[in-house]
Design brief:
alpha/beta, Rossmann fold, 9-stranded mixed sheet, 18 helices, 27 strands, 25% strand, binds adenosine monophosphate, binds 2,3-dihydroxy-benzoic acid
């Protein structure tokens, strides 16, 4: 089993401790302390349930005992794939208390992705909900079990069938849990994956707790705040920016929305007096559209955070007048660095920029393709290093080689410019992935699936600007033999058991890729050319 590490060099670790970023806090200690300090206050609201801080701890302890009684050992990895249910928190905190390591999967992930997470992490257990949104996760568990040799337990929230029911976890007698070290890896987060499948991101107690503690302060959270989780709870944004962990840190209340749609979220905001939540840009557009006719009282909402993909200034400008709250732009990544506009920034900064880093010790380098720094105001590749940015992925030597410089900077793949005050404006990105409504999709990965179809000779996948999604997935396909129909190719993608958001939105059949250049054309160049040609054609057609 590959050991879990996050290799911050000792001199950096010392510096981050001295500066007071890393305070030796751990998730178990945090939960226990808050369960005493905020005992009777409401920690979690979800579905019909309402848990106090004391109850959250009690439930997490029961979960921890249950996991240990299955025979799991500290350090073991557990893939968690749960929708926005309160049990998400009892499971995850339970794992922390037992020194087990959650690996977060999104509810949208399917067999291909889940098998990858299970294998890459050597997970011994997999936690699911029985079903959600019309999908039966027990069927998924049966399928992945065949392909993941280390997996020995499937734990189900809800009707478990032949698997282990989470509701059956019990605590008999006093269980003594061993304490983690603050520099231990607490969990594995996943990246959207710019090439190939998602990478696993080891985050330590020290670094992650710093990121959401500082975020909670930047976002003005207090024990009277009510934070709503609108995006999937496994996403890094609602987890930590400041997210529910930031909310728990200060003793606030966390409300779980089963869906981020205005129909579901607006009544919850009114009922629970939600003060802050975070959305991706397409959802923010839906909220802006629905709010003027909303029957629900949204006046409790003080801050709407938008991030995950670029929020265009024209839309950003409408947030305050339409929703009556402050917009906060959030530009972050599961690998670390998070930027925020500050709540008291001038409106122009809030509307036009994606914020500035959390920490004075976040090192931000903006360089040209030769690695030379570019002047402020000019676009370049963003590299970063700092007290909560990883130095390596888990179990992926190739990605580590590509994604980190020799002196430990993370190559974000984003193209940004720095403006006055150190604020960043995201201009685009260098790598070939599609940012579809905040979901990052690797072009390589989609091409690979398409190429598996017997009637596909070659495929190139690109992002195309989309008014609603921000970007949509467009696949250029050279058929061979009988030309497949676009819906059939999409159905084929689905049959490959991948998350639905990876299925191309648009398929364009072409006879050949026009390789006029001499020699080999890189896929990157090919994609760029196809994309440019497509956009030019589109514009020409619009002109007629
Ligand atoms: P991941 O590494 O999968 O967590 O995805 C993080 C990436 O999402 C960043 O590197 C950016 O490409 C993108 N992203 C996140 N927030 C924003 C934002 N506010 N504006 C533009 N891009 C964003
Ligand atoms: O897109 C992201 O990954 C993201 C966006 C906003 C993120 O990880 C975050 C804030 O922490």
């Amino acid at each position: 089993m590959m050991p879990l590490v996050q290799p911050f060099p000792p001199d950096f670790a010392e510096r981050y401790r001295k500066a007071g970023y890393w305070r030796g806090e751990t998730f178990p200690a945090l939960l226990r302390e808050r369960a005493v300090r905020f005992a009777g206050r409401t920690a979690v609201v979800g579905g019909e349930q309402r848990w106090s801080y004391a109850e959250l701890l009690a439930r997490a302890e029961t979960a921890a005992s249950g996991f240990l009684k299955l025979g799991l050992m500290p350090g073991d990895r557990v893939v968690v794939q749960l929708p926005n249910l309160p049990e998400f928190f009892s499971v995850v905190f339970g794992l922390f208390l037992a020194r087990l390591v959650p690996v977060y999967a999104l509810p949208a992930h399917r067999q291909t992705e889940v098998v990858h997470f299970l294998r890459r992490s050597d997970a011994v257990a997999y936690v699911i909900a029985a079903s959600h949104d019309g999908f039966d996760y027990r069927d998924l568990a049966r399928a992945v079990r065949e392909e993941a040799p280390a997996l020995s337990h499937v734990v189900v929230v809800g009707e478990a069938q032949e698997f282990t029911p989470f509701a059956g976890f019990a605590r008999d007698g006093e269980v003594v849990f061993s304490e983690p070290d603050p520099s231990d890896v607490a969990f594995l987060q996943i990246s959207g994956g710019s090439t190939g499948l998602s990478k696993l991101i080891p985050r330590t107690h020290d670094d992650y707790i710093y990121s959401f503690r500082a975020s909670a302060e930047i976002c003005g959270l207090t024990e009277d705040s009510v934070y709503m989780v609108a995006l999937p709870a496994a996403h890094n944004f609602p987890m930590s920016s400041p997210g529910y962990f930031g909310a728990f840190y200060v003793g606030a209340t966390v409300v779980l929305a089963p869906s981020p749609s205005p129909e579901t979220a607006f009544p919850l905001i009114a009922r629970e007096k939600v003060t802050i939540t975070g959305l991706v840009p397409p959802l923010a557009l839906l909220w802006l559209q629905a709010a003027p006719n909303a029957r629900h009282d949204l006046t409790s909402l003080q801050v709407l955070q938008v991030g995950g993909a670029k929020f265009m200034p024209e839309s950003a400008r409408r947030v305050r007048p339409v929703l009556g709250c402050t917009l906060q732009q959030v530009f972050g990544m599961a690998e670390g660095l998070v930027n925020y506009t500050r709540l008291d920034d001038p409106e122009e900064i809030i509307v036009e920029t994606q914020g500035r880093p959390i920490s004075a010790d976040d090192e931000v380098l903006i360089v040209d393709d030769q690695g030379q720094p570019v002047p402020d105001g000019e676009a370049g590749n963003l590299l970063t290093r700092g007290p909560y940015t990883i130095r390596a992925y888990h179990n992926d030597a190739g990605a580590n080689q590509r994604s980190f410089t020799e002196d430990g900077f993370y190559r974000t793949g984003d193209v940004v410019k720095r403006v006055a005050g150190g604020y960043l404006v995201v201009q685009g990105r260098a790598s070939d992935h599609i940012n579809r409504a905040g979901e990052k999709i690797s072009a390589d990965e989609v091409e690979d699936h398409l190429l598996a179809h017997p009637n596909v000779f070659d495929a190139a996948v690109v992002s195309i600007p989309d008014a609603f999604l921000g970007e949509r997935i467009c696949a250029f396909v050279i058929p061979q033999g009988e030309k497949p129909k676009a819906p059939a190719l999409k159905a084929f993608m689905r049959s490959r058991k991948v998350a639905d958001f990876k299925v191309p939105d648009q398929i364009v059949f072409v006879d050949a890729f026009d390789l006029t250049a001499v020699g080999k054309v890189s896929r990157k160049e090919l994609r760029a050319r196809l994309r440019a040609q497509f956009l030019a054609d589109e514009q020409k057609n619009a002109g007629h």
